[in-house]
Design goal:
Elements lengths: L1 H13 L6 H7 L9 E7 L2 E7 L8 H12 L6 H5 L8 E6 L5 E4 L11 E6 L4 E5 L10 H11 L13 E5 L2 E4 L3
Antiparallel strand pairs: 1-2, 1-3, 3-8, 4-7, 5-6, 5-7
Helix pairs in contact: 1-3
Length: 180
C-alpha cells in the first residue's frame, strides 16, 4: 500500500496525472472493500504531511487511497515538496487502514491499549476530530498522554466542554510502511 501511495503521489507531481483504481490494480491488487485510509509521509523523522478520514468517503480502498494521497498535497507542511518535487523521492510512507470492528468507544483515556491502539477524539460541539495512529511515538504513552497530545493537536478548547461533549475511540490499524 505504501508503494502505491508513492506511485500515486509521484505520478500526480511529476506527470500531473491522477492514476485510476484500474491502473493501480495492474501494479498491485487492492481489496475492493470500503475502509478508511490514513497516509503519513516523513522526511527522516519529521512528518511532512498526513491526511485521512475516520469514515471512508469512497466506495473502495483504491479510490480512498488515491483521494487521500492527492489531499496530502494540501497539507501546509508539504509545500516545500510541491515547490521542489524531486525532494519527494526520499520520503518515507506509511499507510494505515482499519474497519469498524477495529474501533471501540473508550469511557476514559486510560482504557487505551497503548501498545496496539491509537486514539480518535470527536468533538461535535467544536466541530473537531483528531487521531493519533498506533505506534506514532518512539516510546509507549499512556492513554492520558495520548489524549492530551490530541487535545493540543486539534487545539480543543476544554474550558467550554461538558462531560459528554467529547467521544473517544481506541483504534487498531493495519500498518503498511517503508522499511527504514
Amino acid at each position: 500500500m505504501q508503494n502505491l501511495a508513492r506511485i500515486i503521489l509521484e505520478s500526480f507531481l511529476f506527470e500531473k496525472k491522477t492514476l485510476s483504481v484500474a491502473e493501480l490494480q495492474k501494479i498491485q491488487p487492492i481489496q475492493k472493500e470500503k475502509s478508511p485510509v490514513f497516509i503519513t509521509v516523513r522526511d527522516g523523522e519529521t512528518i511532512v504531511g498526513s491526511t485521512g478520514r475516520i469514515y471512508p468517503a469512497h466506495d473502495n480502498l483504491g479510490e480512498e487511497l488515491i483521494n487521500n494521497v492527492i489531499l496530502l498535497t494540501s497539507d501546509p507542511r508539504f509545500q516545500p515538496y510541491i515547490d521542489n518535487p524531486e525532494k519527494t523521492r526520499k520520503l518515507i510512507y506509511r499507510v494505515d487502514t482499519f474497519h469498524d470492528q477495529d474501533r471501540r468507544i473508550l469511557h476514559h483515556p486510560d482504557e487505551l491499549e497503548s501498545e496496539q491502539e491509537g486514539m480518535i477524539l470527536l468533538c461535535q460541539k467544536q466541530e473537531k476530530v483528531g487521531i493519533i495512529l498506533p505506534h506514532m511515538f518512539k516510546s509507549a504513552l499512556s492513554g492520558e498522554e495520548v489524549y492530551h497530545h490530541l487535545i493540543k493537536k486539534i487545539n480543543l478548547d476544554m474550558a467550554h466542554l461538558g462531560k459528554g461533549d467529547v467521544i473517544l475511540y481506541g483504534v487498531k490499524t493495519q500498518i503498511f510502511e517503508d522499511n527504514i
